[in-house]
Each structure stands twice: as structure tokens, then as C-alpha cells.
Amino acid sequence: MRKTIQTAGLALLLASALATAQTPYTEDSTYRGLGGQEGIGKIVDTFITLVLADPRIKESFADFDMKQLNLRLREQFCEFSGGPCKYTGKYRDKTMDGVGTVRDMKSVHIDLKITNAQFNALAEDLQIAMERHHVPTSVSNKLIAKLAPMQRDIVTK
Length: 157
Ligand code: HEM
What we know:
Blueprint: H1 2-17, H2 29-33, H3 36-52, H4 66-80, E1 90-91, E2 101-102, H5 105-109, H6 116-132, H7 137-147, H8 151-154
Antiparallel strand pairs: 1-2
Helix pairs in contact: 1-7, 3-4, 3-6, 6-7
The chain binds protoporphyrin IX containing FE.
Residues 57, 60-61, 64, 69, 72-73, 76, 89, 91, 93, 103, 108-109, 112, 114, 118-119, 122-123, 147, 150, 154 line the site of protoporphyrin IX containing FE.
Organism: Pseudoduganella namucuonensis
Protein name: Hemoglobin
Signal peptide: 1-21
């Protein structure tokens, strides 16, 4: 029951956030609520573990370098929560032989043909990771709301 309410709440949040501009916060209360860089590091570690164990989405990540993805997500969550980081978008996958590229969210995800259901599954895993690290709901909802507008670029199927 709790799960149903949570999922419904999340869907609502994602929908309402689609209308919001995709810009980082100008103050850092969300960043601090996440526990700063240390807290974000722990959240991203747990998040990636959950994603890689999630039968709904784990296959999508099979060919990619999770260490690099981990670093990029730390950067992105830090910047989007108002922290002192800048997302560079530099990412090397295993086939790129050490050459970094800078790609926007659309070009990163386009070949993966991601569905709404996959997007929601990933957002749910992030929500669970934040819960596990005792992030208050008011804070976790703010990060999710910041990331939600990316759905437009990421979901292409
Ligand atoms: C709010 C939703 C999402 C966010 C914020 C997000 C964020 C990111 C970021 C920051 C990267 C690293 C890109 C780079 O450094 O160039 C990335 C890569 C990736 N994402 Fe997402 N993502 C989201 C949703 C998804 C979903 C739903 C899937 C699949 C189910 C997915 C699969 C991947 C994969 C496989 C990569 C590696 C792609 C590559 O390097 O070519 N993402 N994502």
C-alpha cells in the first residue's frame, strides 16, 4: 500500500515537474539535505547498486563503465541540488579508449530507446537510495523534481 502511494506520488511529481525549467538551484539547501558531497557519493553508490539489480532496467547498463557513470551522476546531482560542482558531461565508455566526449542528455540516451516505464523505474530506485540514506522526503522530492524535466530528452520510445 505504501509503495502504491509512493509510486503515485512520484508519478505526480514527475508530471508536475515537467513544466519546470531544467536549471540548477541557486541556493544549496537541497545539497545540504542530501549530505553534501559525501552524502551524494553514498546515495549514488546505492542507486547504481539498485539499478544494476533491477530487472526492469539492468540490461540497459550492461555495456557501460559504471565507474564513470558513478562520477558523472555525483557531479550532476551535486550541481542540480545547488552544490559547488559543475557537471561536465565527460564520459568514457569501454569502447572509447580513454577519449572523453561531452554529450547532452539527449545524445547520451538516444540509442538506448528508453521508455516511460524504464524512466520511472530508475526514478524509483533513486528515491529508494535516498530513503536508505535517511534523506528527508522534502529534500528527495526536490532532487527528483529537478531531474524530472530530463524525461523529455531521455524517453524516446
Ligand atoms: C532522471 C533520469 C536520468 C538521469 C538524470 C540520467 C543521467 C545520466 C548521466 C549523467 C549519464 C552520464 C552521461 C555522460 O557522462 O556523458 C547517463 C548515462 C547513461 N544512462 Fe542515464 N539518466 C537517466 C535515465 C536513464 C534511464 C531511464 C536509463 C535506462 C533505463 C539510463 C541509462 C543510461 C546508460 C546506459 C548510460 C551510459 C550511456 C553511455 O555512456 O553511452 N539513464 N545517464
